[in-house]
């Protein structure tokens, strides 16, 4: 027992104190996290290294997954930067991502506060998303105007049936006329040929506008099964796959669901604020996905608990300093 104890201790890294300096870079700070340990700090370092390996692996097809709420914040710029630099090959997200990206192309969102009087905000026709305030005319109204004009345009070109990913690709082309296009995730995905999949495409303002359009254009259809066929082709043609998965829900599950058919993800990083003791998918750690075959038993993987609006910029800043 004593020998085993000594062998174990001899293999363990020593905990070092974080050394801060006036002009320290984000990269240097995260390297200090790796030396220091310190609960979530060590996880951030590990996640950064896994993501860096994933991006450097030119034979890996990499998935980026996130829910819509983050796109209402300035962290949209971090996600957009990943697509602008072609660091991920496939995006899987929710309908609200389309909503917020479209709206913010033409209109502003504002800093608010969590403790606001929501009854008063409702009277003022201001929506609250966490601590983000969104005036009515900067969300539903502008989305309706843009999406209806977009749909009329492709319908007049003869489009009657389209896969969801191709519809979003065409939307990116349409956003080329948007004054805020340089900040748009959808526009950069179109420009760089990155496919965006929204498996719950009817669950949001964009999806509602699709339904409205179809009331007067009964021959117009979105083929969601064509999206699944495309994902099947992507997964089965990949030599290796990796994923950065922010939050949970349908976008998270769609990534890991499809990757079980190639023996699981080879690399995976989760960022979540959810707990696992309620059995939720959002709270499920990477190790649970191994039991389902959705992450390979041989994979490099980590779950980082915390707010993605803090953690994601740190991780991406580190990656950009290394590539």
Quick gist of this model?
The chain is 50% helix and 17% strand.
Overview of this protein structure:
This protein is 50% helix and 17% strand. With 323 residues, it is of the alpha/beta class. A six-stranded parallel sheet has the order 7-2-1-9-10-11, with helices on both faces. The N and C termini lie far apart (45 Å). The mean pLDDT is 96.
Average residue pLDDT? 96
Going across the major beta sheet, what is the strand order? 7-2-1-9-10-11
Termini Cα gap: 45 Å
Main sheet makeup? 6 strands, parallel
Features of this protein?
alpha/beta, globular, 14 helices, 3-stranded antiparallel β-sheet, 323 residues, 6-stranded parallel β-sheet, single chain
Spell out the blueprint of helices and strands:
Blueprint: H1 2-11, H2 26-36, H3 40-56, E1 60-66, H4 76-84, E2 90-93, H5 95-106, E3 110-111, H6 118-123, E4 126-129, E5 132-135, H7 140-156, E6 161-163, H8 164-174, H9 185-192, E7 195-197, H10 205-216, E8 221-223, H11 224-237, E9 240-246, H12 249-259, E10 265-272, H13 286-292, E11 295-305, H14 308-322
